[in-house]
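Task: complex structure prediction.
Instruction: return structure tokens for all chains below.
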Amino acid sequence: MYLLQEIIFVFFTLLTLVSAVYMAITTNVIYAAFSLLLTFIGVAALYIFASAEFIGLTQIMIYIGGILILIVFGVMLTNKVGNQPIRAKSINTVSGLLLSSALFTLLMNSIMEINFSKLPWIKNGLMVSGNTTPIIGVNLMTQYLLPFEIIAVLLLVALLGASLIAGRKDN
Amino acid sequence: MITLVILALVGLFLMIAGLFDISRKAVFGVAMTGMVAALAGNLYMWDKVPMAYFNRMILIDNYDVAFITAVLGVSMFLFLLSENYFGKIQNYLTEHYALYMFSLVGMIAMISFNNLVMLFIGIEILSVSLYILAGSEKNNLSSNEASLKYFLMGAFATGILLMGITLIYGASGSFYLSGIEQYFTSGNELSPIAYIGMFLVLVGMSFKVSVAPFHFWTPDVYDGSPTFVTAFMSTVVKIAGFAAFFKLFYICFSSVIHYWVEVVSVLVILTVTIGAMTAITQKSVKRLLAYSSVSHAGYMLMVVLVGADADNLMFYVVAYSISSIVAFSVLMLVQEAAGNAEITSFEGLAKVNPLLGFAMTVSMLSLAGIPLTAGFMAKVYILTSVFNAGHGIVVLVAILTAMVGIYYYFKVIIAIYFKTATEERKLFTYNSSSLFKIVLFIGIIAIIVLGICPDIIHNLI
Amino acid sequence: MTIDIIFKLILIASIFGLSLVTAMYSTLAERKFAGFFQDRLGPDRAGPYGLFQPLADGLKLLTKEEIIPESANTFLFLAGPSLAMLTACMTSAVIPWGTYIEVDGHKLPLQVADINVGILFVFGVVSLGVYGVMIGGWASNNKFSLLGAIRGASQNISYEISMGLSIIALVMITGSLSMREITDQQSGFHGMNWYVIKQPLGFLIFLICSFAETNRTPFDLPECETELVGGYHTEYSSMKLGFYLFAEYINMFISSAVMATLYFGGYNFPFMHDLGLSQNVVAMLGVGALFIKILLFIFFFMWVRWTVPRFRYDQLMRLGWQVLIPLAILNIIITGGVVLFFQ
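Output:
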């Protein structure tokens, strides 16, 4: 059973990583969009592995079901000018590679050095088992009520902005 | 808290008001009344016991009241000088006002946060409104470019900031400022992710307040946006940004100052130098003011570097904002008349319209930091405290770049007084109402008065 | 342990088989009903009453020439119908088909996976469903296909919102996102405590949205033949076309199952606990009851298809954004008020 879990975990990790890398290096924007789909699925699966089912499925609903559809939509309508498909060229490959590998080493090193068992909140988190959805709901309505309400302003601003940008132009 | 609620409600009210046919004056009146009411609600909190709201999500003490007052006061000042901008908007006028109100909501959340979640949401509300406002001149390609560029860079910075917040949470197990402070002062060995989180937050915040080397978006965005939005971004938004920046670093990370003090001093040196050096070659006053705002961000960052003396920051942002807004409001009129923001458009302004010429001169002097202006005292306070904290090199670099700054600010003054306008320019009419003139005059007085007796604002907190 | 696993495997296989068979015979039923509504016979040549018609159709599709357009993107062209089929079949994993049966003292629930965020899973998969249409439509490199795909996608996102909002009202009553728990809550009052009684408006919105999500008439604009030839599957032939057509019927089956589970008591049937039958019999009768409900819904889908004309595109969007979403929000407010009142 443990082995099976391990295999599934590795599968989804590889899915996430490979599709993310492919998204970064491919020059075809449509392929990039669809490999982003795989990345999101992989990440959602990893969330579920971290026993955050709610977050995992919300990830699928919001990122794959909403945001990515809009991205694919935009790409489909614009990926050809005339009959010429748009290619996204990679520029600054060397400096980008240097920067990202530096960041990678930094994060990798620190992750290796973390003593996870010393972090008290991880232990607290492990004590909460089973269905986390009600806990999230209760917390959003009690402790995090203000951020929850203020996000409404953020969403309103986004909505307003979208209609402002898409609306009539001045003459 | 009441301030935040009032502003959000005014924003909503304005949006609904947009359904009906109401006059421009009424909309302006509603927005101003809302801001005055918010300001009153805010000032009521002055010198009370610090109040916490909603499970200590926000906590309001004198520091927050002072900075919220600065944000609201400066934006009211800007709004009063803005008839030109709002007069030209044809469609969706109320929506524009609503966006400004919501961005103020974001700023207030950012200033009075006591939990990193609030900080993050506040920054997001502010940024999203600004992305839209930057692109609100839809027929203007450079405005579109500004919006897109700002959005891309801003989204990237948000990602970095969020990653930093997450890592800090990962180390300390708390989003509350007090919890994070406790973690850093506990004396236990700190987890490596705490440091990385701290630096990512530093980078993210630096992006948002355009500190070099994360300032690359600033010139293009400030140049491309409508001038009023540029004024709003480079003054009001900077106040809120630095208020949050300082609060976060002062409360949470001051106990581990030795880890980041060198990094921040390098950032400061880079910012003041790059801001000043690139401003020299600019021919457009708008771009010049954009680079000058980068270099002023360096001074504001010095307060974070010292890690104390919030009143210096307060004085600096107010002095800088007033001077900058006066400059921008004159620029708006000149730009309207001449059709561009080049320095040559200012030639002979003193003869054609003495008030505008004088206002521009005073604000340039203040931005350059010439004695008897607010800008001078602000620089003196900050440089003294930096020197006392033992950062001699930073002070040296700052003084050198300030001298460079005098060169480019004086280019504008020389154009105003010592060049003659072309025949065509002499005929320009600079349409401005009497309200505009009065407010502009008050601005000039404020710059000089603050330069002579700075204690009106300094030492308040 | 082993018996559980074996049972699960059997369950998966039989659910899979059942969905396919139901979908297969839905195609026949659709044509028969169409005949009935239009006062003609419908297919009746293959076997008695045309019962072998689906097999004949399948055989025909399998043996047709396979054509991949030269300018199409081969990989994505193949991925489209496969994805459509895959997502259509995925939802059945979380639907509780029956209570549980007892074998050797083992309680074996008739549900593949009782996850505690079942409804979210359904939504996640439903939102994935549009990718099959989008990928296929785009990869065909045909303007009609692309238009169909875009219509499908925008229709799906528009109606997902009101669908989600209508479910929120339901969840406010149930207090749970688990499909099984929701079904069990409806077993009260002699197995007739169905949520459709408490959520009539929510059900109506959900029903309309399921029509839109499954691209059925009156919302079948993505494959509207008078405007778009065949819509997103214009360029498809042979079994790839079959997959698309089949996926539609499976989707219909699954969304009927979801509606039956959420609003019509799922496997609960009237007087289920009053008859004094053994657990296994009740469970099997429950499965039967659920299937009857599903079949009724499928009939409803077909009934609508052959009586109601198709919407115009702007009407469809207006209905989604200006009618259903406000109604769904109103429903949430009313539900919240009522829940608060009875607390």
